[in-house]
Amino acid sequence: MRNHNLRPRITVALSEHRQLLAMAAAGTSPGAESLLDEMERANVVQDDKLNSDVVRMGSRVQFRTDEGSAKEVTLVYPAAADISLGRVSVLTPVGAALIGLRTGQSITWRSHGGKKNALTVLSVDQEHNLSDQV
């Protein structure tokens, strides 16, 4: 998987798209640049039209890396990030890669060090949705 550039279609809720686009445009980190790229190519839909298997802010996501390890994280805004609690900021490279993916989709992304990685979403749980926490 690592030799290919996987960029599947992604879908983002309208309310989150506005916030994420503004946050990414204001940032200077590699994660902000990745998030801006994702937001510019995203299919934006009304919040009530977003499928429940799409990763959004506050989603609990299980994914598998190209190295075979499975991880589970909650995608959050930067202020709520805490890796010890499994809360990953959307402004990190992996957070930017996860937003908008559906269960079963894979994406290629670059870590802070520039290493090319790939991940596949295994499941998405919206019970942890924190989308109102900015």
Automatic annotation (TrEMBL):
GO molecular function terms listed in the Swiss-Prot or TrEMBL record: kinase activity
Keywords, alphabetical: Kinase, Transferase
Stretches of the chain forming a coiled coil according to its record: none
Highest taxon, organism lineage: Bacteria
Sequence ranges assigned to domain Transcription elongation factor GreA/GreB C-terminal in this UniProt record: 52-125
A Pfam cross-reference name: GreA_GreB
Name of the featured protein: Nucleoside diphosphate kinase regulator
